[in-house]
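User: structure tokens for this one?
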Amino acid sequence: MDADKRITAAVFSAFVKCPTKAYLLASCEDRSDGYFTEITTRISSAYKNIARHTMSLRSWSSEIVRFEQLLRDQRHERTDYQVDCETAVYGVSRAKRIDYRRNVLARDATPVLFVPWEKPDSSDNLIICFGALALAQVAKKMPARGTLIYGDSCRIKTVNIDSHVKRTRQIIEKIFQQWREQKAPPLVLNRHCAVCDFERRCKTVATEQDDLSLLSAMTVKERAKCAAKGISTTTQLSYGYRPRRRKRIPPDAKNSGKRSIPPAKNDFNLRALALKKSQIHVIGPPSLTFEGTPTFLDVEGMQDRDFYYLIGMRFDRLGVFEERSFWADRENGEREMWESCLLTLKSIENTQIICYGAYETRFLKRMIERYVREPNDVDFVEKLIKTSVNLVSYIFGRIYFPTYTNGLKDVARYLGFEWTWPHASGTAAPFLRRDWELTADERQKRELIDYNMSDCRATAKVAGALARICGSWTSDLNEVDVSSLEVSFQRTFGKLECALPEFKQVNDAAYWNYQRSKVYVRTDKTIRRSDRRQNYDRKTIVVQKEAAVAAAPCACPSCNSESLSVCQQGSNIVYDLKITKNGIKRWFVRYQYARYVCGGCGYESSTYVSMPRYGPILRAFIVYLTIELRLSNQKVAEHASMLFGVPLKAPNAQYIKSSMAEKFEPTYRAILKQITNGSLIHADETKGVVNGGGHYVWVFANFTSVAYVYTESREATILEELLHEFKGVLVSDFYAAYDAVPCAQQKCLIHLMRDINESLHRNPFDEELKEIAKRFGVLMRDIVTTIDMYGLKARHLGKHRRPADKFLDFVSCMTCATEAASALKKRLEKNRSKLFTFLVYDGVPWTNNNAEHAVKAFTRIRNMISISTPKGHKEYAILLSIQQTLHYRELSFFDFLRSGRTEIG
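Assistant:
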């Protein structure tokens, strides 16, 4: 291909939409039919004629000429010529250049572009700029402004050329580069393919190559990730499907509304597998039922004008399918079209709208806003919306047809349906409508109405297939239940989900406790004797001290009578421990007391004040086992019973933990206040284990204290509540919520280093990423060396501020082509002011180790408790905050608990 070839406006416009199309146009590639070129040319020509006539009625003085006229060497008296940008050519040969001093037409011409749509596209500005650059080749200077004429009313928009010159020149250079290399660009299918004459050619090539761009829902970034793994075809992608065990949703979580079943996601690997096997793959088919008369609705509209012009309807009346079409010639006919449609909908018994996509329900909502005024009509249309069935919602993420997309055209064609219009698509329909509006060609109107009704029939075809898939596995559609491909989780422990009630009864009888107490006890004498020993009443508990409360009341508390007599003897055992120099021993005390009755009023009283069942040392020991040694309530109860013979159950241990948390809550508040009033805070967050999920525990720490704060979400509300007056330095990871705190911040650089290290392992050949990583590593190595020598002192670390700024300036000036390097550059630029704050302040570390260490302490507790409640999390947060604060200060947690103090010295 000749590298000096001129760029026409058609090639430039095509490159903006698709580089492959521009290459094929420049190469004069044979098109399949030229249908869209013909219809686009017809629309443009008709609109220009109408626009010129409209502009002349407005006394438009400028004359619009073609670019070729500028190449003719002749003088003109007029100086207000406008050049049609669609005829512009860039790269005019030297032989055809003209002398601008003699050609007034070329010197004073400005570019103009006619756009037949109501909303101009951003690419239209680039085409005008392209026309200006073409004019600059044959004139003394480039025009400063261009004119855009668009819409039915021929509105005029002035375009500033300078705002688009850079982007336009980049596109021109890419086109020339493409020609110099004489190599077609990589084929990538996109949305423009539906209205391109090369669609059949490109789709054939992409199908032969099995290209990933056939999966139109896959983004550029997702395709790049696949390419980095060496995956370039859908067949290769299919081998990446790995059936995974689905998370079990607790029944109470389903009913509570706090956490519903996770939404369906589109799995490209599974879609590729369905394509490879040519089978429908179903993940737990949804329950699809039609409760009324299925009415298949399809609506066509012009998005640039927010105008609906065609409604198609297909429904069953007495066993016979009826079809209705409603057409609006102009925008003022939309109301009449809708009212006719509404009357037909009312005439159908128990109407239920079936549509493919959400476009139709949005149409109904818009009609309520525009035209529906009667309350009965409003209720009727709202009921239609509420009971409508969107077939896409039943397909997405659940049913994978062996098609490249979930589009109606692909799915219906797989099921055997075919459109009479060979170019049928929702993207192409507006071109037919606009052609009909400008040329009044009735063939286009008939084509649109037939296309719209074909969509209704195709929707009915898909609905029938879905009903068969969702209702029975004996359909003739060759579907596959994906659960049959999954590797079931080999459960060692846990509840068995029984398919039959008989299985449940048999399974319950197989449990160890049941077998031992009901079956083996009748079989083996040893087990029978052991079982009797377990059920034998325990002997009276031996106490270490007897204490008698001998004092009697002086008078009746009720009537002050001194006529008192003993009515009852009672006793109470307090279970406690005693610390001696030789260790810990149990210390059970039985208090003997008497109750007295008044001879005058009959009121009973006693001088004995009831004491807690479990003493303070035992309570401290139980909390120590729970928090410090991380034992569950059940294990704590077994431990205390085995060592000291304390009659303790798991609920008792839970109650003791709760009461101790309540007692030390003021201590916890004091720790939290001391942290937030300080000059340095380390912050981090981690997930909780509250039933239903979605709960978090935040960690705030400094060098001497730690506080855990429970919240129901990961939102930044807690940061605003606790740190709104904090004036120190906040050290945290890169979670964006911390950016809302109005204080100096230091991001954890070890987090950053680990992320860079991981990116290097994933992208070993990314030279741009390597360069950034190398410079960052050298900088941090020098800083860490200084810290090792002098500590975190600003007067010594200040010498690294200039190298740090140079590193950040270098990254900002880089032009990164790879995704990994671009992402790292963006991250560094976003956090520029928060990466090296520690170089300015004394005593501010460059890592978030204090908070991370505290997080590990909570995760160990979290692994022990397995599942808890919001109240339980708050109690653990209080007690663990005290335990970790004492640990940071090298004090004993158990000694503090048994001391009776509530203030940490």
